[in-house]
């Protein structure tokens, strides 16, 4: 890992990052142009370990910040490795870039604020695990399938079929109810 303190933005390429305080005892290097943040791996892990408690996730917070997910591959500003994109999940539709070389983290504009608002900013080390990613991928698939059903049935009909499905799941005679619904002539015995 490099000990130098000058880095260029991995998105803007030529803009120099400026050191800033992201949290008390956690500094980052911010791009004045795209407003992304580079957090050195060791600094994040040290800060994370100093946190006395793991904050509970705020699951009902909706994201209203304008996020900048450029969608381009990002190279680590510190060691030049190609960074790996990790899904955040948990209802947040963006990724966090992580360097497997120096363990640094790149966050695009407002991503730290979005993570902080949901109390996920202290869980980034967990986001990089296969367990977290598997859950985020399941969530992403479910969201895609829901959109397919909305496109196919229409929003109103999809909401109604989901209500019926939920109702059926609460019944002990579920199979009989489904058989009745599927029978073209239920009274023709």
Could you give a quick summary of the protein structure above?
Helix content is 37%, strand content 16%.
Structural description of this entry:
By secondary structure, the chain is α+β, with helices and mostly antiparallel strands. Helices cover 37% and strands 16% of the residues. The chain contains six helices and six strands, in the order E-E-E-H-E-E-E-H-H-H-H-H. The chain has helices at residues 41-50, 111-117, 124-127, 130-153, 155-169, 174-182; strands spanning 18-23, 26-30, 37-39, 84-89, 92-98, 105-107. It has a six-stranded antiparallel sheet. Strand 4 (84-89) and strand 5 (92-98) form a beta hairpin. The longest helix has 24 residues, at 130-153. It starts with 17 loop residues before the first strand and ends in a 7-residue tail after the last helix.
User: What is the count of helical runs?
Assistant: 6
Tally of DSSP β-strands: 6
Kindly provide the radius of gyration, computed on alpha-carbon positions and rounded to a whole number of angstroms.
23 Å
State the low-pLDDT regions, or none.
Answer: none
Distance between the termini: 77 Å
Characterize the largest beta sheet: strand count, sense, and whether it forms a barrel.
6 strands, antiparallel
Order of helices and strands: EEEHEEEHHHHH
Output mean pLDDT.
88
Strand proportion: 15-25%
Please list the strands of the largest sheet in the order they lie side by side: 1-2-3-6-5-4
Structural class: alpha+beta
| Secondary structure: helix percent | 25-40%
General form: elongated
């Amino acid at each position: 890992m490099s000990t130098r303190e000058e880095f260029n933005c991995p998105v803007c390429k030529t803009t120099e990052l400026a050191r800033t305080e992201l949290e008390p005892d956690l500094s980052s290097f911010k791009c004045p142009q795209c407003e992304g943040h580079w957090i050195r791996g060791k600094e994040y892990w040290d800060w994370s370990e100093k946190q006395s408690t793991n904050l509970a996730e705020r699951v009902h917070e909706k994201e209203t910040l304008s996020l900048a997910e450029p969608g381009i591959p990002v190279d680590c500003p510190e060691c030049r490795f190609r960074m790996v994109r990790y899904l955040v999940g948990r209802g947040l539709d963006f990724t966090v870039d992580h360097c497997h070389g120096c363990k640094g983290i790149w966050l695009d504009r407002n991503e730290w604020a979005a993570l902080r608002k949901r109390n996920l900013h202290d869980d980034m080390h967990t986001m990089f695990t296969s367990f977290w990613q598997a859950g985020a991928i399941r969530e992403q698939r479910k969201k895609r399938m829901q959109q397919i059903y909305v496109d196919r049935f229409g929003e109103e009909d999809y909401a109604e079929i989901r209500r019926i499905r939920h109702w059926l799941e609460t019944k002990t005679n579920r199979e009989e109810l489904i058989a009745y619904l599927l029978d073209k002539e239920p009274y023709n015995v």
